[in-house]
Amino acid sequence: MSEGASKSTGAEEQVEELEDALNPIRNYPRKRVAVACEVCRVRKTRCDTKRPCGFCTSSGLQCVYRPLNQPEKYTSASEILNRIEERLVRLEDSINSSRSEPASTPASIDDSRSAKSKIEGWRSYYQDLITSPNYDNSFRQTTGEAYTARPSLVSFTCPYYIHFDSWDDTSRFYDDEFRAEKDLYQIMDAIGDRVPPTDTRTIWRLQKATIKNFLQWMPLLSVEDLVNHVQIAQTSNFELQNSSAALSMLSFAFAEISEDRASQLDIQHQVFLPGLQYFRHGSKLLQELMPRERREIEVLQCRVLYVSYLQCAALPLMAWDTIMEVGRDCMNILSSGHYHTMSTARRESFHRVFWTSSIIMHELESILKMSPTGMRQFHEVVPLPQTTTEVEGFYHFFAQISLRKLLTEILDLVGYRVGQVIYAPIVATELRKQAQDWYSHLPPPVQFPINATPLFDLRKSYLRVQFVAIHAVVLWPSVLQFLESLVNQGPEKGSTERLDSLQQETRDCIEFCVLNCELAEELLMQRHFGLQLAIWSTYATMSMLMVTYRVPSLASISETRTDMYIRKAFTSLSSWEHLPVVHRGLERTRRHMDRAQIPLDDLIMQQ
Predict the structure, then answer these.
(1) Does residue 153 contact residue 176 with C-beta atoms inside 8 Å?
(2) Between 468 and 102, where is the model more confident?
(3) Ramachandran angles phi, psi of 450, nearest 5°
(4) How far apart are the first and last CA of the chain?
């Protein structure tokens, strides 16, 4: 290349960067992505933009860049452009160096340190983890979720190269949710305005259940604050229209429903949901506080408790509608001057509300396939809450927040788009590595084995099933790509190395689906905060096993030749068949099992 051509190219790049600096919306939000290779983009590390880049060269990875739009041609650049470019480079280096410093892992924290110091170390670690920049979350924010050939309770579009059914029960699902909401309000009206049992023994039992089943999962408020609210509400026998009475009633409602261990027969014959009397009274008190005080911390806490009851009741659409309103108010508060004038204590309480709401919203978003809200954009500016006493619950809280971020990114990146499989082995490998890093750095109180060993701890079990589901979701495109390659090319025409890699990823995916189905039993025995995701992920992985069951080209994978895990997941889900969406899903699975000659008789006897 001539010297003149080299100068011209440099000038073009300078002018291009200047336009980006002066007009940041020009390529938003993919400006930063455009200068990084695919691997560095997913890792969120600084890329030297060489071809191949330094990181890919040292790691032995294939370095792939996205195609860029060709800029308008320029022949020269003035001296001022050089000065501006130098300033921009220095600024970018400064920003990236502050972000790219490795987060200190608190795994080596000295045992002699206090519990407060330990939890603060883990808090800092997870804060760095969740605030790492995500340069590619615009996909679902602008065009909606990718069209994914991954079976769910509601829909599945089977690819042409797989002999299986497709279904779309979306409209029926929403009709059922509308009907369930109407039925719930009718039952609540029939209950009337009478105050539910509030004797001392009952209140003590319900407070204890709230702490165990809610605050140790989601520390929305401190135990001391909960006890204080209950004591205030007791002075008026929970009848005064104030936030303490509403919060107490709604926490009692959650306590009642989360303690429900009824069998399927009992559930079908219940007059109404457990805790509904408390929920009815708490909802009425909350309604009196809305909308005048809806942005007060205590009222926000009441609204999150309201949503949490609906979560346990498996009413996802009602929960989504309400948590959307809570999220909107949280974002409005963060955008206001009021947030900065809060006292330290109230700001900490608000941070608890924000992160609890964010976890619930992300879970419902993935279940209902809703478009994301703007909550994600505030993750980097809202610090994780602090604690000095509730260490156990906060370990789970921090782990859950970071895991939801990872799962959200995976749903953004992995799947089908406009009918074409997104098969990106480098991206999939990196996402699995991130999941493994998350697992390796879990604090001791929430660590779990990656096997089917019963944990007798719902919080750990819930983290484990999400971790396993992440691997199944990431690897599922490899299963589809493997099957499609064999159909279109035949095993003799494809690259042996490529097909071997696909086959191993397919094997790994099916093994994770099997493990997910085995883990379902522990999570589907009772109501709890993570019930809905457990139901939906169990059905999805069970269906993945059905799709691959006895497929000839998968004969070398032993798990595809047995129906044991399919039957086990089916039995676990049967306890929730009173839910219309589960009933339809299991009826569909019964037809598939009958067609595949998987016996149902012994399953019926077990129910």
Answers:
(1) no
(2) 468
(3) -90, 70
(4) 76
Region of residue 237 (phi > 0: left; psi between -120 and 50: alpha; otherwise: beta): left
Q: Under a CB-based contact definition with an 8 Å cutoff, are residues 480 and 421 in contact?
A: yes
pLDDT digits (tens, 9 = 90+) for 492-505: 555 678 888 889 99
Measured from the Cβ of residue 279, the count of other Cβ atoms closer than 10 Å reads: 28
Domain boundaries of the chain, sorted by first residue: 3-98, 169-386, 427-606
CA pair distance 347, 336, nearest whole angstrom: 13
Cα 583-174-190 angle, rounded to 5 deg: 85
Dist CA 285 CA 424 (whole Å): 52
Residue 363, CA distances (Å) to 73, 156, 175, 317, 537 in order: 47, 20, 21, 12, 11
Please give the DSSP secondary-structure letter assigned to residue 378.
Answer: G
Give the pLDDT score at 34: 46
Rg (CA), the chain: 26
Both tokens of residue 79?
Answer: 């001296």
Structure tokens at 570: 């089916």
As a whole number of angstroms, the distance between CA 235 and CA 244 comes to 11
- 154 Cβ contact partners less than 8 Å away, ≥ 6 residues apart: 168, 169, 170, 173, 369, 581
Beta carbons of 394 and 356 less than 8 angstroms apart = no
Chain-centre distance of CA 211, in angstroms? 23
Distance between CA 177 and CA 465 in Å, rounded? 26
Over residues 539-546, mean pLDDT: 96
What confidence tier does 430 reach under pLDDT thresholds 50, 70, 90?
A: confident
47: phi then psi, degrees, rounded to nearest 5: -105, 135
In this structure, the chain runs to a length of 607
Residue 251 corresponds to which tokens in the numbers above? Answer: 């926490």
Q: Is the peptide bond before 291 cis (omega within 30 degrees of 0)?
A: yes
Q: What is the pLDDT of residue 411?
A: 66
Q: Residue 34, class by beta-carbon neighbours within 10 Å (0-12 exposed, 13-18 middle, 19+ buried)?
A: middle
Strand, helix or coil at 168?
A: strand
pLDDT at 485: 84
Tens of pLDDT, residues 87-142: 555 555 554 554 444 444 444 444 445 666 666 766 676 666 666 544 343 333 32
Q: With the CA atoms of 304, 305, 311 and 314 taken in that order, what torsion angle do they form, in degrees rounded to the nearest 10?
A: -130
Q: How far apart are CA 412 and CA 221, in angstroms?
A: 31
